[in-house]
Design brief:
443 residues, alpha/beta, Molybdenum Cofactor Biosythetic Enzyme, Chain A, Molybdopterin biosynthesis moeA protein, domain 3, 4 domains, six-stranded mixed β-sheet, 6 helices, 26 strands, 28% strand, disordered C terminus, binds adenosine monophosphate, binds magnesium ion
């Protein structure tokens, strides 16, 4: 048989057209309805939650003029450009304990970082720039008006917009809201996600495998990936390859969840019932994507719940979760999902790729000689979780290109989590310093 490496692959075996990945994503954004059901939560529980309304600053930040450094508060105008003026220290202002006295001519007040600027002062002379003898300081460096002063409201002014509605709150947002004294926020309620595995062959980790069984990994992958989302996961276990059981379980799940995720049973095998059952009890919006791995992905609805039938192969489950499910969770909560940042990298080894489907290959990227290079993590079978072992990115190969050669430019998408540390330029990849000449070594 002839090699199909460069032959377009737009149709599957039964000649049903495969849906382009971008089109599939657009369809998804069209069918997802945000839950629009809100609750007030304390900041401690707000990480990853999506704001229901714009949030404005309640106070000026900083709330008062304060010193940015340890030093001496002065009236820079009153110094009249005198060289090395001498001033008398009459009081001090520390963080949380303002000075009792106002500044008057010929005087200074000791200040520390974060302390209220004393009345009458408009600049801070750094403590490194003065000579202090007893209660007298001599300024050794000219002082500019406003120097080392944080003006009231210079970070944000009372009433100014801090967060827009539909913003997923990050640690950075929460720290800013806390700084403005905001204790509770109105956010979308947690999205409820029901997760099933399907397949007569599945056993649970900890069980002894019987003939023909494999361990269920997809539920763990999905539940672990969902931990980065502020969702409520409903683990509904494994379903057998049986229409009636699948129908009953999916109907029950759709009544309690906003999103129902299954893996397996959406391909064209004789025991692949999931998609047909969903077509009966709900609707399939689209099925079969020009994607590798992940072609059999089925997306639809059951009642009010959004449904994803993820392919059973473990790598396909993960890739389709990252590309479609993760953004759908954000959309359900009212957030606009950001497309992943694609970084340019140089491929280190040749790669086989057939035109027609977009491919996401597990890769190990690193910085070499100041630029990103990437190698593929071994044979990319969609059953091979081993390809994730040393991976820190997905290499995105367009549907329009054929086989790739070393040196070709590709796009990579970093996987969230620990893999990112692999990116750091290591000693071995930096240019090795010349070995010291023993004759010249100083002892
Ligand atoms: P299916 O689409 O159901 O035919 O599944 C495709 C492949 O993925 C088969 O080899 C299944 O055994 C495997 N598979 C399905 N579900 C899981 C799971 N939860 N964990 C690990 N492998 C699975
Ligand atoms: Mg199956």
């Amino acid at each position: 048989m002839e090699s199909r490496a460069s032959e377009p692959e737009q149709h599957d075996r039964r000649s049903a057209p495969l849906l382009n990945v971008d089109l599939a994503f657009r369809k998804l954004t069209e069918i997802v309805r945000p839950v629009a059901d809100y609750e007030d939560v304390g900041l401690a529980h707000a990480i990853g939650r999506v704001t229901a309304a714009d949030i404005a600053a309640r106070i000026d930040l900083p709330p008062f003029d304060s010193s940015a450094m340890d030093g001496y508060a002065v009236d820079a105008t009153g110094l009249h450009g005198a060289s090395r003026p001498q001033l008398v220290v009459i009081d001090q202002s520390t963080a949380g304990h303002p000075a009792r006295r106002a500044l008057s001519a010929g005087n200074t007040i000791r200040v520390f970082t974060g302390a209220v600027m004393p009345a009458g002062a408009n600049a801070v002379a750094l403590q490194e720039d003065v000579v202090r003898e007893g209660d007298t300081v001599t300024l050794t460096t000219p002082v500019r008006i406003g120097q080392h002063v944080r003006r009231q409201g210079s970070d944000i002014g009372q009433g100014d917009a801090m967060c827009r509605a539909g913003k997923k709150l990050s640690a950075y947002d929460l720290s800013w809201l806390a700084a403005c004294g905001i204790a509770t926020v109105r956010v979308a309620r947690r999205i409820r996600v029901a997760v099933f595995s399907t397949g007569d062959e599945l056993a649970s980790a900890g069980d002894v495998l019987k003939a023909g069984q494999i361990y269920d990994s997809n539920r763990f992958a999905l539940k672990s990936l969902l931990r980065e989302k502020a969702v409520q996961v409903i683990d509904l276990g494994c379903l057998p390859d049986d229409r009636t059981s699948i129908r009953t379980a999916l109907l029950a799940a759709s009544a309690q969840a906003d999103l129902v995720l299954t893996s397996g049973g959406v391909s064209v095998g004789d025991a692949d019932f999931v998609k047909d059952v969903v077509a009966e009890i709900g609707a399939i919006e689209f099925w079969k994507i020009a994607l590798k791995p992940g072609k059999p992905l089925a997306v639809g609805s059951i009642g009010d719940a959004l449904f994803f039938g993820l392919p059973g192969n473990p790598v396909s489950t993960i890739v389709t979760y990252l590309l479609f499910v993760a953004p759908a969770v954000d959309l359900l909560a009212g957030d606009e999902p950001m497309p992943p940042m694609a970084l340019p990298a140089m491929l280190l080894a040749p790669m086989q790729h057939a035109k027609g489907r977009r491919e996401y290959v597990r890769g190990a990227a690193k910085v070499e000689g100041g630029r990103l290079v990437v190698s593929v993590t071994g044979d990319q079978g969609s059953n091979r979780l081993a390809t994730f072992a040393n991976a820190n990115c997905l290499v995105e190969i367009s549907e329009d290109v054929a086989n790739l050669r070393p040196g070709d430019a590709v796009s990579i998408i970093l996987l969230a989590g620990e893999g990112a540390h692999l990116l750091r330029e290591t000693r071995e990849t930096q240019e090795a310093p010349a070995a010291p000449d023993p004759a010249q070594r100083r002892v």
